[in-house]
Write a structure and sequence with these properties.
Oligomer: heterodimer
Order of helices and strands of chain B: HHHHHHHHEEH
Strand content of chain A: under 5%
Structural class of chain B: mainly alpha
Distance between the termini of chain B: 42 Å
Number of strands of chain B: 2
Order of helices and strands of chain A: HHHHHHHHHHHH
Structural class of chain A: mainly alpha
Distance between the termini of chain A: 13 Å
Number of helices of chain B: 9
Largest sheet of chain A: none
Radius of gyration of chain B: 19 Å
Strand order of the largest sheet of chain B: 1-2
Number of strands of chain A: 0
Shape of chain B: globular
Number of helices of chain A: 12
Radius of gyration of chain A: 24 Å
Shape of chain A: globular
Largest interface: A-B, 47 and 48 residues
Helix content of chain B: 55-70%
Largest sheet of chain B: 2 strands, antiparallel
Strand content of chain B: under 5%
Chain lengths: 257, 216
């Protein structure tokens, strides 16, 4: 359950591009055509899916305060977290080199179309950012770290795919000259980010503010307010004809969650 | 410092406007957008990047003839990572609250495309003094945009500058200044999408003034 929640959270709510602006440079540079955008997005997903769990292992067994206890009890109070940056970036650079070799072997056409961007992924803030956010949010298990990596990658992929598609279409639009190219892309990305903010309520089960209202209404006047509470519950749960008892338990359950 | 030669002065002034790393070269966007909700954070980030880029450019320029070409990216990353660790530790020691606000974005200076970009484009092919100037110039260009965005976002979003309320007192019951006339803070400016739109507007203004920069 946690995995599914983290998965959707990292794609929509904490979207790497729209919420935290990671990977913007390659996002802006590669989004002129959908084909290259798809290639780069896939590479980002792959690299994130590998480096976030690896860096989690590093963090867990080497870098965290008290992480070195597996070597011996006397190492318990070593805190190597200041080395995080160098260790993370080293893992990422190695992994990207590996991905480059694999892509060159298995898909030379993709390798050619990606050109300079593959080595550029190593310095893509999205990759390092994924690992750093994994560390700062103290993600608990290896499985969760992998889910987070894959989810973040898919979120980034969605973003670059959308903006590439839009940029291809607006080539025929009447954009004012000073805004053409970079300027309008910024503004469109801003609007898309506003759109993605709507996902903020996704995992809390809707508008939290409405919960107390339904609760008090039901407690005070049970028979008469059946219609009102039905309407309010309908907006969220789309259930017709449930009894008062069931609705109260529903409201109670969602508050307890 | 004595008078800089004309070419050297250009190294500093070009990135401030015509060759601005953020609006023209399209580098360093990530941190420019994420931490500019407060003017203070923008200023501290700008200073950090000036330090890292200035010193980094000099170091890379000094060792440029002995780095084997195959591992130059790794060497650059190590140099930047070391400098950023220093910045991070200094921030944690002297400005802990601010380092919490900046959180992972101090670490992300490592992958700030401006730094790697200038290493590749300039420091690897030029002497230390000119690389230093180029680094300072580009970091200043980056800082200027950061400060402009941070200025507008903080002013319009929370009515304060550097933490000091400048538009009056917004607390209901003790309204003063602009708030007494009915003005309210536009909280939306503090959210991420507005940073993108503010930078878009800056690009608009810049390219209207300098028609040569317009893309087709």
């Amino acid at each position: 359950m946690e995995h599914i929640e983290l998965f959707f959270k990292s794609i929509f709510i904490d979207n790497m591009v729209f919420a935290t602006f990671l990977g913007m440079c390659s996002y802006l540079a590669v989004s002129k055509k959908v084909k290259t955008a798809v290639g780069l997005g896939a590479a980002v997903i792959f690299v994130l899916a590998i480096t976030v769990p690896l860096n989690w292992l590093l963090d867990q067994f080497l870098l965290q305060p008290g992480a070195l206890t597996w070597l011996g009890a006397e190492y318990a109070d070593y805190d190597l977290s200041f080395l995080s940056f160098i260790m993370f970036i080293a893992t990422i650079a190695t992994m990207v080199q590996l991905v480059e070799i694999i892509v060159e072997k298995f898909s030379p056409s993709l390798y050619n179309s990606l050109g300079i961007f593959l080595p550029l992924i190593a310095v893509n803030c999205a990759i390092l950012g994924g690992s750093l956010f994994m560390q700062s949010r103290e993600i608990a298990t290896l499985g969760l770290a992998t889910t987070y990596g894959i989810g973040s990658g898919i979120g980034w992929f969605l973003a670059i795919l959308a903006i590439a598609a839009i940029r291809e279409k607006i080539r025929y639009s009447n954009v004012p000259a000073p805004l053409r190219g970079l300027g309008i892309t910024f503004i469109i990305t801003g609007l898309m980010a506003i759109g993605f903010m709507s996902f903020g309520g996704m995992l809390t089960g809707g508008d939290d503010g409405a919960q107390p209202e339904t609760e008090t209404v039901q407690v005070q006047e049970q028979p008469e307010t059946k219609d009102i509470s039905l309407v309010e519950e309908n907006n969220k749960k789309e259930e017709d004809g449930t009894t008062d008892m069931e609705q109260k338990t529903l409201a109670n359950n969602t508050i307890n969650e | 410092m004595g008078l800089l030669s004309k070419k050297d002065t250009k190294l500093i002034t070009d990135p401030l406007a015509d060759n601005n790393p953020i609006t023209i070269q399209v580098l360093g966007i990530c941190s420019a957008l994420a931490i500019t909700a407060e003017l203070k954070a923008s200023i501290v980030m700008a200073i950090s990047v000036i330090f890292v880029l200035g010193v980094g450019n000099v170091v890379i320029s000094l060792i440029r003839n002995i780095i084997p070409s195959k591992i130059r990216i790794i060497v650059q990353l190590v140099v930047v990572a070391a400098l950023v660790i220093i910045v991070d530790q200094v921030l944690k020691a002297f400005a802990y609250e601010l380092s919490k606000t900046l959180s992972v974005f101090v670490g992300l200076i490592i992958t700030n495309c401006i730094i790697m970009g200038r290493f590749e484009a300039f420091a690897l092919g030029n002497g230390p003094w000119r690389s230093f100037l180029d680094g300072i110039g580009n970091a200043l260009g980056y800082g200027v945009i950061l400060i402009i965005v941070g200025f507008f976002r903080e002013l319009l979003g929370s009515g304060t500058l550097l933490g000091y309320p400048v538009l009056g007192n917004p607390i209901p019951g003790e309204l003063s200044g602009l708030y007494a006339l009915g003005y309210e803070n536009n909280g939306f400016m503090l959210l991420s999408p507005m940073a993108l739109i503010v930078v878009g507007i800056i690009i608009w203004v810049q390219r209207s003034k300098n028609k040569a920069l317009i893309e087709d």
